[in-house]
Design brief:
Elements (H helix, E strand, L loop, with lengths): L12 E7 L5 E9 L2 E8 L4 E8 L4 E7 L7 E5 L5 E3 L13 E4 L4 H9 L7 E9 L6 E10 L4 E6 L5 E5 L13 E3 L2
């Protein structure tokens, strides 16, 4: 069995990041409710808020993105079998097979597969995520590779364009510094 990360406290956890250039900030709050995790992040530079509802085993169930409305600008859900739909019930067949969500404006979504995948050091997994553009609200499948390089060191590669980065995570599996993009503040 692979090394597991420390559990988050059930009464809540907060993490903060700054963009690499110091121009933007994010605050993530993670809490336990209704037998699962709810992650809520506020990303300052992009002026968005996101909510990700997860099972106890870190499988995405719902994703909501708020930009300038009280109601979500984007609301996606999955049935647990990698079938995705919108809040209005429309089945998004183009997203079938996606296991997670990805937002380029936050390092948090990188934590989703890290917490969910049971990888040993040296193991690799290829996954497909629903990648969300916060400006256009476009959502497309994005093929990614995660490799566990050490107990707390990972490598991430986008398979379609070859972008890759190595980074460290904390004892909970949350990204610390993500070179050229984010720095952990606490």
């Amino acid at each position: 069995m692979p090394d597991h990360y420390a559990p988050f406290p059930p009464d809540g956890f907060t993490a903060r990041w700054a963009t690499w250039d110091g121009d933007g900030r994010e605050e993530l709050t993670l809490g336990w409710e209704n037998e699962g995790w709810t992650a809520s992040g506020v990303v300052g530079r992009e002026r968005v808020q996101y909510v990700v509802r997860l099972t106890a085993t870190w499988q995405v169930r719902q994703f909501l993105l708020f930009r300038d409305l009280d109601d979500p600008d984007l609301w996606l859900a999955t049935d647990g079998s990698a079938r995705w739909g919108e809040v209005n019930g429309a089945h998004r067949t183009d997203l079938d097979g996606c296991s997670d969500v990805g937002l380029a404006c936050t390092p948090f979504t990188t934590t989703l597969p890290i917490r969910r995948l049971p990888l040993h050091v040296g193991d690799t997994a290829d996954i497909t995520v629903a990648s969300i553009d916060v400006e256009t609200l476009g959502v497309v499948p994005d093929r990614q590779r995660y490799t566990r390089l050490g107990e707390r060191r990972w490598s991430f590669t986008r398979l379609d364009d070859g972008f890759g980065v190595e980074f460290d995570v904390d004892r909970h599996g949350l990204v610390l510094d993500y070179p050229s993009r984010y720095r952990r503040l606490d």
